[in-house]
Amino acid sequence: MKLGIVGLPNVGKSTLFNAITKAGAEVANYPFCTIEPNMGVVPVPDERLDKLAEIFHPEKVTPAVVEFFDIAGLVKGASKGEGLGNKFLSHIREVDAIVHVVRCFENPDVVHVEGTVDPIRDIETINIELILADIEVLERRMERTHKAARGGDKQAQWELDILERIKHVLDEGQPAKMCQLDGDEQEFARQLQLLTYKPVLYVANIDEDSITQPESNPYVKKVMDYAKNEGSEVIPLCAKLEEEIVQLDNEEKKLFMEEMGLKQSGLERLIKASYELLGLMSFLTAGPKEVRAWTIKRGTKAPQAAGVIHSDFERGFIRAEIVSYEDMLACGSLAAAREKGLMRSEGKDYVMQDGDVVLFRFNV
Ligand code: GDP
């Protein structure tokens, strides 16, 4: 899962991104991609992995991860090429969801680019750039589709109708996701890769003092009302504090959080919210070599889940042997689960469930 961090200058993006990078030091041996300077990889907190590790004593434990991309430099006029303009907009196109950091902290030492703290104005400044960029994409697409539609192409006429409806929403200054679309139309809209069709999580960056009661911060309240209207989520956190939290070891962290009256760190809440927002879940693999969590979309069937591990697994898929996480814990070993008849053999139509402990059987 890829998340792109955006926001005006001086709102706390780098501070949050530093926290992310430090959190990612734990998974430094992350095997899948070369880590770029603007990318941070964070493990998805999952206590099931620790419990399974107690059973299997594996050589290593590999959590699912979320990739954060720092898309700094989005400023007023970006859609017209101001700042590093279009380059940043194209980076946003590649992410699954946007994390929009908004300044909700007062600090006379930190200059606000617009002079005052005003989260809604800030949100709209960024959003208008994204909307303008989308309008440009849409206009180009409409031009082509228009020609085809005039030639009597039914599909093109259907598409043109959707494009026009989305354009209308954008022209009103609203994000594309506010356009009312049904199933097929939504699928078509997704393929357009519009920036404002992507899910958004607003991070309300608050100061240390509001951390125990973020709702009492009037700026946060405003952001929540704004986000509610467009169906987005708000995660209040203090980026500065997050940066400190990730540097503590587990024991220190526990104490510190208790002292602050916090159950989860802001980063953990952010990751959890993005999982929910994107409809993701994890299945697990466990053995003496490795205990590991893998990310899939809800509704994914067994062969495609196998394909997340390796494309050969999907191609040669025979069946999946599955024990639920709860049964696995209760039985204490795969053999015991099998003996008790709690290991199910599932075929290619099986829809994976969150926390399934899986052994894939496949032909090579
Ligand atoms: P960016 O330009 O959006 O990347 O912003 P930075 O992360 O560089 O932050 C700008 C300034 O705001 C820095 O001096 C930070 O120390 C300060 N800052 C960032 N987050 C917080 C926060 O949560 N609370 C307070 N009080 N200051 C913060």
UniProtKB/TrEMBL annotation:
InterPro entries to which the protein is assigned, alphabetical: ATPase_YchF/OLA1 (IPR004396), Beta-grasp_dom_sf (IPR012675), G_OBG (IPR031167), GTP-bd (IPR006073), P-loop_NTPase (IPR027417), TGS (IPR004095), TGS-like (IPR012676), TGS-like_dom_sf (IPR023192)
Cofactor: Mg(2+)
Keyword tags: ATP-binding, Magnesium, Metal-binding, Nucleotide-binding
Domain of life: Bacteria
UniProt keyword Nucleotide-binding present: yes
PROSITE patterns the record matches: G_OBG, TGS
GO molecular function: ATP binding; ATP hydrolysis activity; GTP binding; metal ion binding; ribosomal large subunit binding
Stated role: ATPase that binds to both the 70S ribosome and the 50S ribosomal subunit in a nucleotide-independent manner.
GO CC annotation terms, alphabetical: cytoplasm
Amino-acid positions noted as binding ATP in the UniProt annotation, renumbered to this chain: 10-15
Domain TGS: 279-362
Record-stated family: Belongs to the TRAFAC class OBG-HflX-like GTPase superfamily. OBG GTPase family. YchF/OLA1 subfamily.
Residues annotated as domain OBG-type G: 1-257
SUPFAM superfamilies listed in its UniProt record: P-loop containing nucleoside triphosphate hydrolases, TGS-like
Name this protein carries in UniProt: Ribosome-binding ATPase YchF
Record's keyword annotation contains Phosphoprotein: no
Pfam families: MMR_HSR1, YchF-GTPase_C
Record organism: Mahella australiensis (strain DSM 15567 / CIP 107919 / 50-1 BON)
